[in-house]
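> @MW can you paste both from yesterday?
MW: sure, first one:
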Amino acid sequence: EPYGGSEESPFSAIVPLWVEPAAVARRLARAPDSGTAFFLPLRAGQPPPPLEAPEEETLLFLRRLRRVELLWPGEGGAVAGVRLTRLPDEEWAVGSGLVRARVLREELCGGTLAAPATAGRALCEFALLRLRLLVRGQTTELTLAFDAAPSPERRPRPLFAWLPVCHAGLPFALNADFSLVASRQALHDDEWNAALRDALPAALLGAARRERWLRERLGSWLP
């Protein structure tokens, strides 16, 4: 049940309420074919909340989640939204040490909740570099995601702790087991996060020294 909120947003939190399965089937306008679906009803008379479509890199570091579809009421009651689908990974190049990750982004506009219409598609490709590190006596993994087709207009990618946390101005996405504040919107200023930060440059340079292909492309991915 939504509650709280302000003039900017109809609700500030969602309180889960138990509903019998039969009641769910009767109330939902669209039953999911597979996977998990979340339906967030609003109180009567409330406008739909302002929603931001997820970026394609959201699926890069979630090993099992392969598809996300976000729908909301558009103009004139039509459906609007976005669908992200993670395609199977591929080896980038023999001996490169990289993985090619592809995310299909589909813009949805029109149609119905059960069958939204696709207004456009874009295939986003990333090169993933996974680094196993020993940090403060613990084995951990850092993953960097570079845009597969670098352009002069680089846009910053966020830091991840499996899900997006915040931006740090980096031209690539960085995922690590960061220590986060309770809101998940910032990193703790602690020794663990400092150790992860300090380990990254040496690990990245080491991988570039080992892999010629990575070394040749690295200059176009960095500021």
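MW: second:
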Amino acid sequence: ILGAQSPRALLFEVVLVRRQLHVVSRRVRGSSRAVKKFIDDRDIASGLTAYLQDIIEHLDEVSDDCERLGGKCMALCEAYDRAVDKERDRRNRVNTGQVKKREERRKAQADLQDRILLLLVVVTTIFVPAQFLTGVFGMNFKHEDGMSAQPELVTPNGYYSFFWTPVLCYFALCLVIAACVYMCLRRRQDKEDFYVDGGAAGGDSPARESSSNGQIELVDFLESGESKIGFIIEAPKYRDHRQGRATNA
């Protein structure tokens, strides 16, 4: 029967039992006080004192049992609350892990799309001039006499001189620019890694060393030049005093 019930239904039953035990404990304490009054009355308790004393002892045992069982019911309620909290924390951790995985998957997909778009943009940018030359030399305009309107097409070796030579030079220039950009980015990354590794290892970077040296020089100047600073502060007063004397004279 207990296995077929849900944990919340069992918790409700435990709470109900605890309330009933509390009611029983109150009734037992009232009965114990009534029996003690009977014992105090000599007319009623004559010959029944031992019997009434046994009744009081049994009522005390019942009261103690009610308190003990009530404590167990309270412990069961607290254990249920802890179990619910643990289950909620576990679900929250699972949900948080799933959310993080979805975010990481979405971020990885976005990064992949960005790299693909960057690659497409770079390839398109590189081949746009070649496509332009292809479109220009692919136009079939002719004069009235049937000759081509583009003299480059009828020039000897014009195909290599006017098309492939500019295209190859452009590709070579693109390679040189790409190599320069890669070297600059690589050098900047190496500098950043150097500063990060130096800070993580506890070393002083050049900027930090220059800052500390500047602070030390400032402190030395202030410590050694107190008299100079005092002279600079007192100099206007001295000049004002001399000017006052000259005016009075």
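> thanks! The CA atoms of residues 212 and 248 lie 52 Å apart.
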